[in-house]
Amino acid sequence: MSRRDFLSMPAPENYVAGLGRGATGFTTRSDLGPAREGPSEEQMKEMLAKRAASLGQAAPSAYGVTERKEEERDEEEDRFQDPDNEVGLFSSGMNYDKEDDEADRIYQEVDEKMDKRRRARREAREQQEREDYEKNNPKIQLQFADLKRALGGVSEEEWAALPEVGDMTGKAKRAREARMANARSYAVPDSVLAAAAKSGELDTSIASGDADGMTTNLASIGAAQLSALTVRLDSAANAPGAQTTTTCGTATTVDPKGYITALERKQSIGGEVPVEDINRARVLLESAVRTNVHNGPGYVALARLEEVAGKIHTAKKVISRGCELCPRSVVVWEEAIRLNRDNQHNAKIIAAAGIKQNTKAVKLWQAAIELEQTPASRKKVTRQALDHNPQSVELWKTLINDTEELDAVRLLFAKATQTVPLSEELWISYARVSEPEDAQQILNKARKAIPTSWAIWIHACRLQEELGKGDMLETIMNRAVKSLIKENAMIKREEWLAQAEICEEQGDKGTAAAIVKATVGWGLDEDDERRDVWLEDAKNALNRSRSETARAILDHCTSQFPYSTTVWHASADLEKHHGTTESLLRVFEGAVNACPNSESLWLLYAREMWHSGDPKGARDVLGRSFEALPGNEMLYTRAVDFEVDAGNYDQARSFLQIARESAATDRIFMKSAVLERQLENYETAIDICNQGLQNWPGSWKLHAIKGQIYEQLSKLKEAHEAFNIGTRAAPKSPVLYILLARLQVKQGAIVKARSTLDRGRQQNPKSEEVLLEQVRLERRQNNMNTAQQLMAGALQQCPNSGLLWAEKIMHLEGRTQRKPRALEAIKKVEKDALLFVVVARIFWSERRLDKAATWFVKAVTLDSDFGDAWVWYYKFLEQHGTEEKKGDVLSKAAMAEPKHGEIWQSVAKDPKNARKNVEEILTIAAQKAE
């Protein structure tokens, strides 16, 4: 029976291997290429149609779905058709009308506006970040970009003269190993080994005699500890931005970069370069010159090395050889001229030879000019140089500086500007030496020659200011801005402000103001935070002592934001510290007219008017403020203060009476009671307090004033009742508990005082005043252990309280422990004027007066409103200061007008001192301070 070779037989028609199990082709790892493609779509359809015909079924579509009839498919598609759009939902827009077009345009404008809002600042920020990143992480190709560009000037001869690379790898290491191999070694003595073995042992025995043993100097150890603590205190008071390194508990500021640089600089003790370094460098430079005879900088370096070594003759020979072999190297000729300056004749010969080889080298011409002794010879050489280099601005400047006649100078400037018309410096200098009328024409020519120059416009503006034409300054700057924008040469806003500050520094204040007004808004959109940007610009200008520039910025800011009280306050503050009284009052007048509803502006205006010596004007200002802000209690209280200072008590009473009727507040009643108390009308003051407490029973100040009046009248029972009622009506007021406890101590009821303070502590657990009063009560009763325990608990409740730390340091610590505790407190609280005063008092007690004065200054600088700092500083100066320094402190304290501080408030709020000024209160408080 014959066997058919079916493997070699052709496949049936439309046969696809593996189609029955879903395979249409596969690829194995051993295949060198992809498997053959499967059957096409037409083949699949034909095969499925034949199969369906053999089974007597309708021809299915792909994946076994029977094809629908054309009518059924059209009917199903029509079912989902949009009745309003016969061509489909995403058609080309047959129903697109004008409203759709307008909507698209509006959306596009909104998108463009949103993208523009922060584009400039975003691009600037991204550019800055990109520059910072490239600066911190430069690419290798950028690091060597300048060297690559310099290679473009290398000639073929220089390329051919480059030496071959030698085998320098490991040369120094091999030489060092050879030296070590030849070095001798010695055996270590046994005594050294024995000493090394005993180095880690502890010897607990004490030598009986002092001759051979070591004695402990306790005084030196204490002095060292004090020095370390002083350094740590100074470091703790420094700004937190300093980089510090802590070593053995002592914080010191270290500059790592400078430290490493200092280590790398190896010089001898006498400041001279070591001989071995000179020899080593000479070998290297001679090798470099020998391998490349046309290396000009190499000859210069070798000549300077010989000069440093003191071999001037050798240095001249080296540089002479360099001039012969490198005649086109300008640096070589310059060095040759410098080395031969001791012989003017030789130097001139060398300069002439160098210029002959390099006629375009301006530096060689300058060196030759410097060799001449007389102005005539200098001008002769300069003219020869200009014949070869007519475009050199430096040579023109040299020729002009050597010319003394003004007319000749002007002629030279005219020739120079014609020859070098693009030099701003020459045009501006030409205008400066010319008459005002001629200067204007010169600057107009310069502007046409260099339309992109902003410096010429600024100089034109300064020229008009010098001529007294201040009304032309803004016009010129506006024209300058338009012209520069047209030429696309407008510089940044920050650069304009810098130019304004330069003009102010040189005395042209009008020009500075014109520059600011014309350019301060350049690059800022209306949507940007222009007000904040301008306020920051003014602040930065003030920090650089450029008050006129800051004033111009704030004037422009007030014109753009006339209803911003923040801008008016900044402008008034500027005039108060850097302006005149008239300018300050003028600013306040504009401020209250623009912002009549601002209470603070009215109050400041009236106050400055009063301090300027115009009480009538201050009263008029307050009268206008009453019309703008009727019923405002702050205005009434300021009017009362003015009348009290002037001694018009009846007028002050009438103001308070009107206020109590029209603008009744607890503060008005408190102010009325205080006034009557100062005038010793105690019954009237108590009646006013009772009236106020009927409406405001929770006003702790009224309770306190009422109790203090009774206590002043020695009616301790009524005072106790007033304070007691106050603690129940206003339980969250620590002052009432303290006043009640002090009254109870005065009555001898110590246990009741403790109970009162405990009750106050329960109601105010975080009140440092109540906690401090508890500690002081026990301390005054000599219960130091109890006081220490209470202080420990108080510091747990309020660990950042400078008041508690000060009490602990000054009254609960021994003298030797005060400075460590002060350091600990400063680290906890960081910046607290009271703690600075404590440190100053510690140094004062140690008679370290310079340190004490420094810390007192730190305290009053940190918080000028803290009156106790001024009190202790003045007390210190009364003992160790001069009359001039005391007067300076009194004037600064009067300007600061402090309001806070325990000692300060006890004196300032005493009715006996009601009409005393700051200087008098400071003097009294200094006597009271203990």
UniProtKB/TrEMBL annotation:
One of its GO terms (cellular component) is catalytic step 2 spliceosome. It is found in: Nucleus. Residues 1-138 are annotated as: Disordered. The keyword Iron does not apply. Residues 11-171 form the PRP1 splicing factor N-terminal domain. Keywords: mRNA processing, mRNA splicing, Nucleus, Repeat. Its main location: nucleus. GO terms for biological process: spliceosomal tri-snRNP complex assembly. Residues 72-85 have a biased composition (Acidic residues). It comes from the Eukaryota. Residues 38-49, 104-115, 123-137 have a biased composition (Basic and acidic residues). Gene3D superfamilies: Tetratricopeptide repeat domain. Associated with the spliceosome. This is PRP1 splicing factor N-terminal domain-containing protein.
